[in-house]
Amino acid sequence: MTGSVNRSIKFLVAVFAVTLGVAAATLTAADTAAVEATSRPSVVPAPPPTPLASALGVSFVEGSASSLIVEREGKKYLVDVSARTITEVQNTSASSASALQAPDPAQSTQQTAAAAKPAEKKEQKPGVYEPGDDYVFSLPSGRRLDRHGFYINFNHRFAFEPAFSGAARGGALLGLDGFALPSFGFRYGVTGKFSVGIFRSPTSLARPIELSAAYNFADERDGHPLNAAFRFSVDGQNDFAKNFTANFEGIFSRSITKRAQIYVVPTVSINNRRLVSVFSFRSSAIPDLPGYNSFALGVAGAFDIRPTVALIAEVNPTIVGGRDLGIHRPAYAFGIQKKIWRHAFTFGFTNSPGTTVAQRSGTNAAYLNSPSADTPSGLFIGFDLTRQVY
User: Fold this and answer.
1) Are 220 and 125 in contact (CB under 8 A)?
2) How far is 315 from 138, CA to CA, in rounded Å?
């Protein structure tokens, strides 16, 4: 239906243009001189409707020599031949005659030029760092998601193969040949400030599912002195069936010029559980563990050594409840991050196999039940992938 309307309008515009050309050719030299000698512009009266014009649904605009109104299927359109624009007229009653007045040619030209001008790219506030990932490594960066943006995160931890100790580390590619703990999740920007997410880790980590909701209430791009977000999440092991942990996070960051950013992430976990290794897919293999309240204070930093390459580091000590959870040394990590448009890859070394909020403070000492597994000699490889789908 819209295509037939547009074709009818184009046909009428062509007829009108030919009519104007014929009328201009019949003007006499005297008439032209009289018009040029006139000190003030004359108003062109609307010609009386002709049977053909009425049959075609065409009417002329009073005071205009380049505009007409076309009516099709109950709708009216204002056609400006000089500006080459077609505008739907919402109200064409006598009381709204001003809506049908001829547009100012200069204004029409400006509007046409503005419409043809490509949208300018939104300027980035100078001095504000742009994180490439939702995570520094295991700690969140707290970056604000785009409204209706959809994000995918993949995390891998090779916790069973130390990178720098043991035999034939070179032959095993520093542990990359070993068994990995893959986790993945999705995040969605409901608004420009509110987002939700879901994340899952594998059976070897008691297959927890984490549901989260976050709100960014301050952003440096909006003129605030720092970035600040609050996130609430619930972790449930055995695919969200038992051993539930409630987490409350504050995620704060501040740019140090546009090339670096520091992060502080205080986290309170209610009924947190100790990290355990599970090597069976049976639900009965996931133990019912006692819950302990804990408080961790994560600190991290990112520094761009190239426009799309950053060095990252983080430490996440458990200040309250660490001994109950088998944590004797803080979880930490460092690595390098490559950032491409809507995509980031982070490669590094860590002593923590967990990636959910409840498990990221645990170390390999508790997971492998080995007191020395969280020392520098027990560091293992991990990497993160993130992608903004839209």
Assistant:
1) yes
2) 9
Residues in the chain: 390
Closest by alpha carbon to 214, among 235, 238, 197? 197
Provide CATH code, domain 150-388.
Answer: 2.40.160.40
- Within the chain, all domains assigned CATH 2.40.160.40 are found at 150-388
Put the strands of the sheet holding 58-60 in their side by side order. Answer: 58-60, 67-72, 75-80, 85-89
- The burial class, CB within 10 Å (0-12 / 13-18 / 19+), for 187 is buried
Highest mean pLDDT among 71-75, 120-124, 143-147: 143-147
What torsion do the CA atoms of 71, 72, 74, 75 make, to the nearest 10 degrees?
Answer: -70
Question: What are the DSSP E strand ranges found in the chain?
Answer: 58-60, 67-72, 75-80, 85-89, 150-157, 181-189, 194-200, 209-218, 227-236, 242-255, 260-272, 292-306, 309-316, 318-320, 331-340, 343-350, 380-388
Q: How many CB atoms lie within 10 A of CB 208?
A: 27
What does pTM read for this prediction? Answer: 0.68
Give the lowest-confidence range in 61-75, 90-104, 198-212, 354-368.
Answer: 90-104
Tokens 């599912």 correspond to 209
- Of 248 and 174, which is predicted with more confidence? 248
Query: For residue 374, which phi and psi values (nearest 5 degrees)?
Result: -105, 10
